[in-house]
Amino acid sequence: MINIQKALDLVLSQKQFYGAEEVPLTEAVGRFLAEDIFTDRDAPPFDRVMMDGIAIQLKDLNDPLRPNYPIQGIQAAGAPQMTLKAPDHCLEVMTGAILPQGTDTVIPYEEVEIKEGTAYVKIEKAIKRFVHGQGSDSPKGTLVLQKGKKIHPGDIGILATVGKSRVEVAKVPTLAIISTGDELIEIDEKPLAHQIRKSNVYNLWASLLQEGIHAERHHIIDDQKVLQTQLKILVQKFDVLLLSGGVSMGKFDYLPTVFENLGVQKLFHRVAQRPGKPFWFGYHEEFNTKIFAYPGNPVSTYVNHLFYFKQWLYASLGNSWTFETKELGEEMPGCPNLARFISVNLNSENGRVLPLNHNGSGDLFSLAQTAGFLLLPQREGVYRKGERFSFITIR
Ligand code: AMP
Ligand code: MG
């Protein structure tokens, strides 16, 4: 049995770049950038009017304003730049318009009164210029989004602004999720007394969907021959297989033997951790297939997936998945033999987290109360109240 750090190192040693592809901007959210993004113009691209009002010439902001300014015309947003002909006049300007030539300051409508073609100013000095200067956010050629970044909705706006109607993103691996277990039935079937509906495949499938991956779902019965025949096909067809169940000590836990028979290279089986100890990980050299075989208990499956697979995936897509840390809200006895992922709740009062009472890794419904898992490393002494540990969010 190996420890959690060694297991993680072995998983990450299998990181794999699957190439890049171009997608329309409307399909890019949640994907990982495979190109650096630069501004193609100054931002803003022109001196942009920030308030609806009048634009005047006021070389020194401290100079007093004139009592009134006859209006020469209106500079609308989206109209070419106008020019102020006489410096004692003004132009009406709208937010988003280019600042007219010959003006430098905007007096908002709130501070003027307009009567018969003249703007009467109600203040003695301008408050500020209300001009968003050309290039003041980012000059042309600025690196605004870096290769490897996961594209969020705010980034989509940036990509649109720089004219990226198509975006180069990292290709995601093709992936199949395979449940094993003769007690499992489909969710629209009626369970007999000894049966349960499968949940892990849906849990994993949804988690992958959030990363932009549409995985195939499969089920294979607990029969060594059948497992071998079907996995042989799947190993060749997909980049990654995620399996749940069938890797523990039970009489029908055939997967480790089947993998061996199929020539899959085992990197480890069993990690000094709870839950999820029987986790099996390896790869098939010839078909370059990565295999994550999680023990079937729903919390074990999910924790392993969030901790190992997610870090592997992000590394493979040019990013890295890092965990925030949270303070433990109460002292707990140390655990020298195993690292532990404990289900915790957020305590809104002081931001610390508290362990949740639940019935172990088979208690799927406890996930509804869980904010995430705190990773407590192997240790002889106690885990101190207020001490910081990695927090694996499930939200
Ligand atoms: P195993 O790892 O195959 O020994 O399974 C451990 C426990 O997890 C058993 O109680 C299984 O019924 C349960 N289990 C396995 N796979 C799933 C699944 N896909 N959905 C829900 N529970 C599962
Ligand atoms: Mg099983």
Automatic annotation (TrEMBL):
Pfam families: MoCF_biosynth, MoeA_C, MoeA_N
Cofactor: Mg(2+)
Pathway named in the protein's UniProt entry: Cofactor biosynthesis; molybdopterin biosynthesis
Keyword Transmembrane helix: no
Similarity comment text for this entry: Belongs to the MoeA family.
Known function: Catalyzes the insertion of molybdate into adenylated molybdopterin with the concomitant release of AMP.
Name assigned to this protein: Molybdopterin molybdenumtransferase
Organism: Echinicola arenosa
